[in-house]
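Checklist before submission:
- one chain only
- standard amino acids only
- sequence pasted in full

Submission:
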Amino acid sequence: MPIKLKENQNPVDVPAKADDWSGPWGRISPTPRSVDTLRICKGKCSEEVHSYPYRVLSSWHLRGAGHEEEELKIEAGPDLITIIGHGLSRVAAALDLGSLEVLTETVAQVGTTRDSKIMVSSITLESARAEEASHKRTA
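Returned file contents:
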């Protein structure tokens, strides 16, 4: 007797992102030639360092490409990394190639902001778990 497959009666809907970050996100697919870990260095003297294996980096989204201030968001496991600066399309390209090893906040000298090709003015890390906990407390 042949097996009859049922169609899913309750299809799973992916919730839409409620913020202005809707749109396509780039996927990060490490290859055997990729570096093992992405290190994020925060602070003027790299006071705070976070390391993420490439296997936990899932996607990125760049907003404002070519403008004075660009914003790049990277989903890294339970964390969301937000980078603000300019020239960040090159950072996104390095993520696609699996060749980005270190990302550091740049200490800008007066008059050098526009001269440099890549400038990272700030890096913010948000933990999805902490955000979920804060939403539960306010609900």
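Reviewer check: The CA atoms of residues 10 and 54 lie 34 Å apart.
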